[in-house]
C-alpha cells in the first residue's frame, strides 16, 4: 500500500560532527588492504580492514596522485565458485546502518575487473560490475540501508561462477550507524533499501558529504544553468525525518514564471518495481511561501504542497516506477515551483537466515577447530548458493543444516559437544584430518545416517548412546587412537556398515 508522508521543518540547529570526531555508535571506516590507518582530507580516520576479515590478499595499486587515498589499496579474494568472503562487525541490534563499499580496480590499462555479488547477513543485495566506471577512470560506489539482524553484521562478497573468471575485490568499506528517524517509514523487518540516486538540485560544486552530512551520505550535484538558484539563507533543522544536511537547501531549481518545472530524474531507467522517493523543498526567499503540485510520471505525488523558507519534505515508501522518470512541479500560486534535493531507493526483501540453533552450533564447532575454511563467516546457509564450504542446507519452513563434510581439509582441534544441536544432520564427516579429543555425545542427532570420523587422532571411548541412533547406517572410526569396548548395540546392529580397526585399541577386539 502506498504511503505518503510529509515533514515540515522548525528552526532548530543541526550541527555537523566536529572535525576529527568519529561517527556515532558502531560505525566503521575501512581502508581495505591498507597496512596502517590513514586520515583523509576531511580528518576522517580510515582503519585497516585486516581485523574484520579472515580471507583475501592485500594489494597496492601502482597509481599516483589519487584524490581518494583509500583507492590506493585493495583486498582480493580467490575465485572459488559459491564462496562468500565476509567482513564481520559488532553492531547494535536495534539500529540501522548505511553500508557503502567502494571498488576501483585501476585504469583502463589494467586487467578487466571481475563481477561478483554483494551479500549482507543472509540477504542478496546486488551484483557488482565496475567495467563502465573503470573505462571512465572512476571508482564505483554502492550504498544500501540495512537493519542489524543481531549483535553482529556480516558484509560479504560472493564469487558467482556465472559472472567472470576472477575473484572479488574491494577498496574501501563504510558501515555507518544512522539515527532512528532516518528512513524510518520503511518496514525494515521485511525490506532493505538500495540507493538509486541522491541529488542536490541546482548545485555546480562538489559532492555534498561529511562533515555537512552527519552520515557521510553523498549528495550529487545536478547543474542546470537555466533554472538554478542559490538561496541567501540556510535551513538548519533536525525536524526533517531523514536529517538532510542544511547545505542541500542552499541551491534549487526554480521553474520559469507560468511554466511547470520538468525534470528527468533519476537520470537512468528503472525496473518496474516499488521505490522509496523523498523530495526536499525550501523557499529561496525569507519569510515566503509558494504552493504547487508534485507529479511523478503523470501521477499525483502530492497536491497543493505549500513550501516555506523553513523547509519541507515529501516522501513515499512504496511508489511504483518504471523506465525513465519525470518529476513535474506545477504552480498553484503566484510564485513558480522549485525543488532542492531528492533521494530514490530501490526496495528489496530481507533474506531468511539459518535457524538460530544451527547457526550457534556451527559457531561453536568453528571455535573448537583450527584451519576452518576461510568462508566460514556470515550466515552458514544463506543466501541460496552461498552456504559455507562443507555445509549443505535444506530450505523449508526453517533453514536447517543437513550435512557437514569437512573431510581432508587439514583441520585440527576437537569436535565441539554443541555439534549435537545440529539435529537435522543426516551426514557428518571429519575424515582424514588431525582432530583429537573424544567423540561427543551425539544422541540428539536423531536423523544421522552416516558418521565418518576415520583417520584422525581421536581418543577416548565410544559412548553407548551412539548405538541408540536408530537411523545410523554407516560408522567409520578406523585410524584413530580410541580405547575401551565397542558398545554391543553397535556390534549387533545388522543394518550398520562399520569399521573400527585398524588403529584403535578396542578390547575385546571387534571384527574387522
From TrEMBL:
* Gene3D superfamilies reported for this sequence: Galactose-binding lectin (2.60.120.430), Ribonuclease Inhibitor (3.80.10.10)
Keywords per UniProt: Leucine-rich repeat, Membrane, Repeat, Signal, Transmembrane, Transmembrane helix
Q: What InterPro entries does this protein's entry cite? A: Leu-rich_rpt, LRR_dom_sf, Malectin-like_Carb-bd_dom
Query: One Gene Ontology cellular component annotation?
Result: membrane
Residue span, Malectin-like domain:
30-345
Q: Which domain of life is it from?
A: Eukaryota
The subcellular localization recorded is:
Membrane
Leader sequence range is 1-20
PANTHER family recorded for this chain?
Answer: OS05G0393100 PROTEIN (PTHR45631:SF3), OS07G0107800 PROTEIN-RELATED (PTHR45631)
Q: How does it sit in the membrane?
A: Single-pass membrane protein
Q: Which protein is depicted?
A: Malectin-like domain-containing protein
Amino acid at each position: 500500500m502506498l504511503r505518503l508522508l510529509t515533514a515540515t521543518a522548525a528552526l532548530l540547529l543541526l550541527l555537523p560532527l566536529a572535525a576529527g570526531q568519529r561517527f556515532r555508535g558502531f560505525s566503521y571506516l575501512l581502508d581495505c588492504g591498507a597496512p596502517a590507518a590513514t586520515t583523509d582530507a576531511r580528518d576522517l580516520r580510515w582503519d585497516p580492514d585486516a581485523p574484520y576479515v579472515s580471507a583475501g590478499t592485500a594489494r597496492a595499486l601502482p597509481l599516483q596522485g589519487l584524490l581518494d587515498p583509500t583507492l590506493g589499496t585493495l583486498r582480493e579474494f580467490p575465485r572459488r565458485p559459491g564462496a562468500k568472503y565476509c567482513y564481520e562487525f559488532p553492531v547494535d541490534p536495534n539500529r540501522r546502518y548505511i553500508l557503502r563499499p567502494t571498488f576501483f580496480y585501476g585504469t583502463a590499462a589494467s586487467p578487466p575487473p571481475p563481477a561478483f555479488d554483494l551479500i549482507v547477513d543472509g540477504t542478496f543485495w546486488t551484483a557488482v560490475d565496475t567495467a563502465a566506471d573503470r573505462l571512465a577512470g572512476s571508482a564505483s560506489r554502492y550504498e544500501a540501508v540495512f537493519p542489524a539482524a543481531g549483535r553482529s553484521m556480516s558484509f560479504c562478497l560472493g564469487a558467482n561462477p556465472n559472472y567472470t573468471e576472477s575473484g572479488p575485490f574491494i577498496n574501501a568499506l563504510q558501515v555507518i550507524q544512522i539515527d532512528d528517524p532516518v528512513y524510518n517509514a520503511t518496514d525494515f523487518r521485511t525490506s532493505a533499501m538500495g540507493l538509486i540516486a541522491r541529488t542536490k538540485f541546482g548545485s555546480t560544486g562538489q559532492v555534498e558529504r561529511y562533515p555537512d552530512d552527519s552520515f557521510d551520505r553523498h549528495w550529487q550535484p545536478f547543474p542546470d544553468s537555466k533554472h538554478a538558484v542559490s538561496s541567501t539563507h540556510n535551513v538548519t533543522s533536525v525536524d526533517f525525518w531523514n536529517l538532510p544536511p542544511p547545505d542541500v537547501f542552499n541551491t534549487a531549481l526554480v521553474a520559469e514564471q507560468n511554466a511547470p518545472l520538468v525534470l528527468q530524474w533519476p537520470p537512468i531507467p528503472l525496473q518496474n518495481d516499488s521505490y522509496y522517493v523523498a523530495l526536499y523543498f525550501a523557499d529561496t526567499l525569507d519569510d515566503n511561501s509558494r504552493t504547487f503540485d508534485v507529479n511523478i510520471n503523470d501521477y499525483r505525488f502530492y497536491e497543493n504542497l505549500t513550501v516555506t523558507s523553513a523547509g519541507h519534505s515529501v516522501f513515499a515508501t512504496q511508489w511504483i516506477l518504471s523506465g525513465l522518470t519525470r518529476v513535474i512541479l506545477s504552480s498553484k500560486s503566484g510564485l513558480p515551483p522549485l525543488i532542492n534535493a531528492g533521494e530514490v531507493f530501490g526496495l528489496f526483501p530481507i533474506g531468511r537466515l539459518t535457524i538460530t540453533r544451527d547457526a550457534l552450533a556451527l559457531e561453536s564447532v568453528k571455535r573448537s577447530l583450527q584451519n576452518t575454511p576461510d568462508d566460514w563467516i556470515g550466515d552458514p546457509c544463506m543466501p541460496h548458493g552461498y552456504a559455507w564450504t562443507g555445509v549443505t542446507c535444506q530450505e523449508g519452513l526453517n533453514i536447517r543444516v543437513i550435512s557437514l563434510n569437512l573431510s581432508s581439509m587439514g583441520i585440527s582441534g576437537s569436535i565441539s559437544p554443541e555439534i549435537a544441536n545440529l539435529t537435522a544432520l543426516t551426514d557428518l564427516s571429519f575424515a582424514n584430518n588431525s582432530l583429537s579429543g573424544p567423540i561427543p555425545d551425539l544422541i540428539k542427532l536423531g536423523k544421522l545416517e552416516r558418521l565418518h570420523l576415520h583417520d584422525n587422532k581421536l581418543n577416548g571411548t565410544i559412548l553407548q548412546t551412539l548405538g541408540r541412533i536408530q537411523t545410523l547406517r554407516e560408522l567409520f572410526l578406523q585410524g584413530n587412537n580410541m580405547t575401551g569396548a565397542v558398545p554391543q548395540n553397535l556390534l549387533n546392529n545388522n543394518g550398520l556398515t562399520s569399521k573400527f580397526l585398524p588403529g584403535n585399541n578396542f578390547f575385546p577386539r571387534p571384527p574387522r
